[in-house]
Amino acid sequence: MFLDKLKNELNHNQPLFIGEATAMRSAVLIPLIQVNEEWHVLFEVRSMTMRSQPGDISFPGGRIDPTDASPMDAAIRETHEELGIPMEAIQVQGQMSAFIPTSSFIIYPFVATIDQYPTDSFNKQEVEEIFTIPVNWLLDHEPYVHKVPVQPMPLTDFPYDKIANGNQYQWKSRVIEEWFYDYEQYTIWGLTARILKHFIETIK
Q: What is the spatial distance between Cα 187 and Cα 30, in angstroms, rounded to a whole number?
């Protein structure tokens, strides 16, 4: 009885990783538009008045709301709200692998074609400006990387008396790879560059 129930539960849809249900979940859209009959990737520059990451370059997207039917619906909704693009003009072509920067944060990226270029319809409170980069340029130009060491630093109330070796425990450091794309006056880095890099590798 126990094993039958266990097998049944294990063969149902499992979360992507332990903690997915309680992680902060976001969805982003990689918008593809045609400019002079050539495919471009559309980016937005976050408004300088934003509390989080003002001035950074990103894809449209944001946190998945409880009212969103799926991560894809969240990506479409956020794109509509930020860029003013009608939802019916957003044609999702597929979903990429989820990006998990930490166990408490997950991003679901989607790729979509956009029927119209939102030259002045974007939300000025959230978006400073928009610009595009030709896909062919991205295929021909490799990003560069800088490595950032990260060392765990437990708080003073960490229960060292509960673990072997106590306060002599050797915490393992790790290295974060930060990728950069330089295009004209724009620099794309951080989570956006990581997702962009995976997208370009996928279409290669």
A: 17
Of residues 202, 59, 45, 56, the one with CA closest to residue 139? 202
pTM beyond cutoff 0.90: no
Q: Which of 115, 131, 130, 29 is nearest to 78 (CA)?
A: 29
- Dihedral pair phi/psi, residue 61, rounded to 5°: 155, 180
SS3 20: helix
Q: Which two tokens stand for residue 161?
A: 């008396």
φ, ψ dihedrals at 34, nearest 5°: -100, 125
CA–CA separation, 193 and 131 (whole Å): 15
Render pLDDT for 125-184 as a digit per residue (tens, 0 to 9): 888 999 999 999 999 999 999 999 999 999 999 999 999 999 999 999 899 999 999 999
CA 81/CA 125 separation, integer angstroms: 11
